[in-house]
What we know:
The chain is mostly helical.
Amino acid sequence: xxxxxxxxLALLAEVRSRLLIPVRGxxxxxxxxxxxxxxxxxxxxxxxxxxxxxxxxxVLRDADGTLPDGMxxxxxxxxxxTQQHWLSxxxxxxxxxxxxxxxxxxLDVEVRLPTTPWSPPEPRFWSARRIILHLIHETAQHAxxxxxxxxSLDGANSTAQLA
Length: 163
């Protein structure tokens, strides 16, 4: 494993931890509550990221352009099960992703992306590095969503809860 592996995984761990701050101390009912005009909930975000990280790991591992089952399913944005279920699933997905990335001799490996309805007609390829950067981007974006949802729920914000 290279220094780059370490640095990217450290940044991914940091944004994952920031995402989890807004769900601290919530009941399942609070985690499932909509607080804005958006359909997003805190529990739904955790489910989406747990599911999404597993799917991107499958894309990375398979590298053949196969679309993971459920990747386009918008139900992944709603909370099913309990909040603890999805927090555990997210933790397990993160650990599995980190372990696989650490095993890669190089982040330059090329991965064929799945074809989606919005994909160009020709196959697209990303490096493993680009997939990790995508996970960082996606997680950071949703951490911001989580902040807004939590602040709308009860006034709490992540900056005040960093400890």
